[in-house]
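F.,

This is the one I mentioned.
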């Protein structure tokens, strides 16, 4: 059974699975030019087979606890992705990545998804330190971190190579030791 986190009556996070390949591929293609402004990987997504291989790798990482990839659903429509791109089990730390369909931005979906993901893993006692790294000039991503209680811990100089040049990256973190927080 695929892991699912209920966010609200209409919003849910579903662990990535083989059945999602076609819909995820179509969502990436729809948002490809916008995604390439902030992320390196979309340029390498050409065929549905590329997406299938990515999904298969993420399913294995999810099952083994090294990463967690969830698809954001509004009703039965896939509208984005939120993930722990890397989990450090000993440190109980996870690096968060996310993106949302351009047509669904500005509605608070990502903040609600992020809060549900955090709450779920704090309740399970698996994660206590949540980290978001985003380019300094990615205003929307910085806003998501700030709106959701993440504190800026520093700026990593020229830490991300994107579109032919190096960019500075803000490092945000939120630590939750008490599940009632």
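My design for it:
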């Amino acid at each position: 059974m695929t892991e699912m986190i209920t966010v609200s009556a209409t919003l849910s996070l579903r662990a990535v699975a083989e059945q999602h390949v076609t819909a995820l591929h179509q969502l990436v293609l729809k948002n490809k030019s916008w995604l390439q402004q902030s992320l390196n990987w979309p340029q390498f997504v050409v065929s549905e087979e590329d997406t299938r291989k990515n999904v298969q790798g993420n399913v294995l990482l999810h099952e083994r606890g090294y990463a967690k990839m969830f698809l954001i659903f509004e009703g039965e429509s896939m509208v984005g992705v939120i993930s722990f791109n890397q989990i450090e089990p000993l440190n109980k730390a996870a690096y968060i990545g996310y993106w949302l369909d351009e047509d669904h931005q500005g509605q608070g979906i990502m903040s609600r998804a992020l809060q549900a993901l955090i709450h779920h893993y704090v309740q399970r006692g698996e994660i206590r330190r949540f980290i978001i790294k985003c380019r300094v000039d990615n205003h929307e991503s910085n806003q998501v971190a700030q709106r959701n209680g993440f504190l800026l811990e520093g700026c990593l100089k020229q830490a991300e190579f994107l579109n032919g040049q190096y960019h500075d990256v803000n490092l945000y973190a939120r630590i939750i030791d008490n599940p009632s927080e």
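The two ends are 29 Å apart (CA to CA).

Talk soon.
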